[in-house]
Amino acid sequence: MSALDFIPGLGGADLITLMAGAAAGFAVYAVWSALLVRDPMARRIKGVGLHRDELRQAMLATQGNRARRRETTVDFMRRVAERLKLLKTRQADAITLRLAQAGYRSKDALIVYLFAKLALPFALGGIAVVLVYFSGLWAMTAMMKLFIAIAAVIAGAYAPEVFVANSRQKRQKAMQMGLPDALDLLVICTEAGLALDAALTRVARETGPACPELAEELGICSVELGFLPDRRQALDNLARRTDLPSIRGVVNTLQQTEKYGTPLSLSLRVLSTEFRNDRMMKAEEKAARLPATLTVPLIIFILPSLFVVLLGPAVLSAIDGLSGLK
Predict the structure, then answer these.
(1) Boundaries of domain holding 217
(2) Residue 9: inside a domain, yes or no?
(3) Among 33, 35, 121, 275, which one is most buried in terms of CB atoms within 10 A?
């Protein structure tokens, strides 16, 4: 039996045809994705608008009985979560905050996360059991089959946490990179005479194409400054949603300027200069680590080939000379 005939009912030619079709489909999708023009601010502007509507409804307190929504997948997830009382656990608030820090702040984000964390271990475990025990594609020992099934269950349990943590880290890194430029624009807006909420709105609109994540957070903060009775609460919400020390410093500066009446533009200019210097120092640190990082690839990949080129002819000549003495 050849290596291409390991799937029952499929020959080598059929498998090659399927692989060629999959490669062609992937190529078409890659070209289509490269030519597709996406607007990074469309979804985030919609999220800011939804947040504004929620705050308006909470302030007016005119919520009535809504019509029953039709059955959807999210409704099924919600019923399961409510029946198992997953939304009333102590970790629900902490999970909601982590989801907001990762950019998922809708009402259904917590329900989808909890349902995924509950269902994925059973789903991946069931798929692993079917593939390992009943498909007969691989010949493995009983201990190895049990290990693969347990590993699939553990992977399903931790997959939502890893996904959210990765999204949160990428989002924080993007906001950290775009913060100095946003502070420069905020300094210009405050020196022009704009109020804090109007300045944040203008900065969010201008920084949207470059850093949509930071623009979204600043837009939500400007909305909360206009709706919440306590402005300090709006700024504290910005620091909690981002969970960045640099933005916490900006929030503390804004709160102190409102409390003591110090010039806002001067404080923001000092912070902007400090953050820009920090970014430059991090870039210089990475450049300084580059020689030490390249040492290992140099030793492993370049020096052996260099020794072969330099010492190879001499070794071959020595072997020929020693063989001629016999």
Answers:
(1) 171-280
(2) no
(3) 275
Report CA 19 to chain centroid distance, whole Å: 31
Give the separation between CA 206 and CA 218, rounded to whole angstroms.
11
Taking the alpha carbons at both ends of the chain, their separation in whole angstroms is: 50
Q: For residue 228, is it within any domain?
A: yes
Q: What percent of the chain has pLDDT over 90?
A: 5
Structure confidence at residue 70 (pLDDT): 40
Rounded to whole angstroms, the Cα distance separating 141 from 257 reads: 69
Q: What does the alpha-carbon distance between residue 200 and residue 217 come to, in Å, rounded to a whole number? A: 10
Shortest CA distance to 119 belongs to which of 159, 164, 150, 85? 159
Residues across the chain = 326
* Structure tokens belonging to residue 128: 């692993």
Would you tell me the crossing angle of helices 142-191 and 109-129 to the nearest 10 degrees?
160
Number of domains in the chain: 1
What are 230's two structure tokens?
Answer: 């306590």
For residue 316, tell me if it sits in a domain: no
| Contact present, 137 and 6 (Cβ < 8 Å) | yes
Confidence at residue 40, expressed as pLDDT on a 0 to 100 scale: 56
The CA distance from 268 to 200, in Å, is 13
Say if 231 falls within a structural domain: yes
